[in-house]
Amino acid sequence: MSERDLAMMYAAHDAFRRDLRELAAAPDRERWTQFRTQLSVHHTAEDVVLWPSLRRRGVDARLVEAMAAEHDRIDPLLAQVDRAFDTAGPDAAQPALAALSELLHNHLQHEEKETLPLINDREWSLLDREMRRRIGLRGLRAYYSWLLRDLEGERRRRALATIPGPLRLMIS
Q1: 33, 170 in Cβ contact below 8 A?
Q2: Where are the alpha helices (DSSP H) in the chain?
Q3: 23: number of Cβ within 10 Å
């Protein structure tokens, strides 16, 4: 995977971590909904495109299965947070948010350390195409605004460099 592609993946991972920190400090339904939407797009694209491609390419099956299993363990926690917000309110979401934060943090570290270095340019292109398809043209501005919020310095510059010029003008 090129440095350019890694910039977007790290920016997304940073945004997930940021949102979880903010949700832990002040659970908020709107912030939760944005986080959940973006994480669902991200993980579903990996499940549909990335893991199968890595399997076909013969990447260590234990690693690919571990990544998929981590996604499977995250999903019930997302549902728990949803239920807490829907039935009992933001404060009731705290225990599930804490568990989700720990599990997702470990998953992101695992992915960054062991999986990202294995993704080739073709796989990145397929993943990017699938994420854009799932986000939709109308959702791209919201996605990039979410992604870039609070991102600074070199990481912001690298992420912005991957965004098409006309769209970059709309979100900068």
Answers
A1: no
A2: 3-25, 29-45, 51-57, 61-87, 94-110, 121-135, 140-148, 153-161, 165-171
A3: 21
